[in-house]
Amino acid sequence: MTHRERVITALDHKEPDRLPIDLGGSVVTSISAVTYRALRHYLGLPETEVCVAEAVQQIALVDEDVLELLGADIIPLWANPPANYQPVFHTDADGTSSFQDEFGATLRKPLGCEYYDWCEFPLSEPSLRALTAMPWPDPADPARFAGLHARAQQLRAETDYAIFGMAPCGHDLFNQLLRVRGMENGLSDLLLEEEFTNAFLDRLTATIIRAQELYLDAVGDLLDIHFAADDLCGQAGPLISPALFRRMIKPRLARIISAIKAKTSAKIFYHSCGAIIEFIPDLIEVGVDILNPVQVSAAGMDTAWLKREYGQDLCFWGGGCDTQRILPFGTPDEVCAETRRRIRDLSPGGGFIFNPVHNIQPGVPPTNIMAMFETALGG
User: Does 92 reside within a domain?
Assistant: First the structure.
């Protein structure tokens, strides 16, 4: 099978010739740039300038030589940056780096840390006046889509990877509220500031849909998978009550997914970390095809149970190895055993794309990374 045939077969809930593998196919299935450099050195590959594909998480754009060595089957198709926004990075005297995102929030990365975190929020009050005055991304900026169709055609013609689409202007509803108001204020707004919250979410939904439609007008017929996300849960359970999700978030998510499906036959990949089990029936109902990252260390996220309960309705993308304890701190033998267990749980009958839980983090030994992928390839 080709890479694309292998992925499509699995996503159609059939067993391919081998397990499909992803590293770097999306913003949540990649590898820290720091760890990627170490992995390339370990593999004896030529030194190259590592491209940081996404600033917040500092993840690498994975080169084709690594994709080939690891048997990866997916390649991303990122939208372009807009013409009217470029992140400007500032470094303070103490080594802290910062920049503002398209919504005007400030993110910081202290010296020695590997991520940027949202620290200053553009909406200081939950008012319609403040919302109107707030900077807002332009979803229709032509620069975002320039040359995308030709690039997608080239990927189709010159490679046989499955193509993973990621539209601009974000994907999160719940999380984006927290990023412009701060977590405490945003959570309070959902309960206490309904007029403001509905106005914000309506404007955000319209922005996301417009960006999705323009992106998919350019490349929708050339994609195999399409990205959506919103972290709804923590390790122990939901961050938002299921009832509040169903009232405030789910109807808008349904509109977004309906707009996507009107423009492409690509499978809808939905990312939410944490103990997501209470929301899975809702995600299936609104049209999600694929669940990621399958955080196996979170409450209730037993892979054998998930496969039995939802394997007919959902594909699982991730969950291939516990990335909190075993992948960074285990021995290669422990990594192999954990990987075999997750494959045994999730792969029967298809419907499984192998990836560890979320991006591979800084400090993960290359020996463990290779033990994991070699096991996934049948080693």
Answer: no
